[in-house]
Amino acid sequence: MSMEQMFVFSAEPEDGSLPAHPAEPFVWYPGIAIATVYGLVILVGLVGNITLIRTFCTVKSLRNVPNLFMSSLALGDLLLLVTCAPVDASRYLADEWLFGRMGCKLIPFIQFTSVGVSVFTLTALAADRYKAIVKPMDIETSNATVKICIRAGIIWAFSMTLAIPEAIFSDLHTFHIAKTNETFVTCAPYPHNGDLHPKIHSMVSFLVLYIVPLLIITVYYVFIAKSLMSSASNMPVEGNVQVRKQIESRKRLAKTVLVFVGLFAICWLPNHAIYLYRSYHYAQVDTSLLHFVSSVCARLLAFANSCVNPFALYLLSRGFRKQFDRQLCCGRVPRWATRAQSGGCNNTHVTSLKGGSHSLPSCNL
């Protein structure tokens, strides 16, 4: 999130823990190594998310409500990887902010927007699974694609609105290191005076972009779990095969969304925790090696969240896996994928999660 602008590692004091000049081996070589890891994360994320979006856009059978939301999620991840990750990596190769005052306002805005799109889209996905499983009769079938696109647009607009304060208040500020009596200028959401603003900023960000959405998702999944257990217990032993397949399909979709939510929660929690620590110790600049390493790992883990979703879906869905391989290999399914997926996807006439009756691949998601 934008508050991670405070993660400055390039101007630490020369006290034996983090030398200040990247030309010195202790900083220069670790900086290259860290930037290389960033590059790998960006590359993997670009390949995965672009292929996911292409798959959902070109394969008609995969254009359903969850997948449209996942495409929006992938678009937000791409935005984060293309804009914010390279800027974050540059901090380990240069001892000053390289992107000027305009970049200091734009990058935090983009980052906050992207994280907002991710967590609010996951919340919308949980709500969609709740309607499909607990209240299937409430699902509207007319103009479903248009309505989902409108909802996704609203999520983007809402996230951008929440990010406006980041662009307004973020600026280049001068910080002072008491141990060495050095000063440095970096991009930060507020000047280095007073301790109220950083505490408010960190707590509001933690609540809005983490705690509250995850609590809402948890409530949805409690009702989903109850509904699925009730359906399983009330179904006769010789139950309708078509109904059983529908329930299994809903379980798979709910499981997929839950995995996405779990990955988000795990990947972003360390980043939030470190920022909260920084905001409550704002008067001091922690130059310890432990803090440096934990901060780097937290940042990389947060950015890694933007590249894991396509591959998590790849492992969870045979239908998506086949189409993903086809898109990745320019329209041809590789031989190893064909052998792994022997039997393919048989068209099965089932009642879709939207309420209509369609012929869908039985292995789709």
UniProtKB/TrEMBL annotation:
One of its GO terms (cellular component) is plasma membrane. Residues 48-313 form the G-protein coupled receptors family 1 profile domain. The chain crosses the membrane at residues 26-47, 68-89, 109-127, 148-169, 200-223, 253-277, 289-316. Keywords: Cell membrane, Disulfide bond, G-protein coupled receptor, Glycoprotein, Lipoprotein, Membrane, Palmitate, Phosphoprotein, Receptor, Transducer, Transmembrane, Transmembrane helix. SUPFAM superfamilies: Family A G protein-coupled receptor-like (SSF81321). Pfam families: 7tm_1. InterPro entries: Bombsn_rcpt-like (IPR001556), GPCR_Rhodpsn (IPR000276), GPCR_Rhodpsn_7TM (IPR017452). It is found in: Cell membrane. GO terms for molecular function: neuropeptide receptor activity. The keyword Signal does not apply. It is a multi-pass membrane protein. Belongs to the G-protein coupled receptor 1 family. This is Gastrin-releasing peptide receptor.
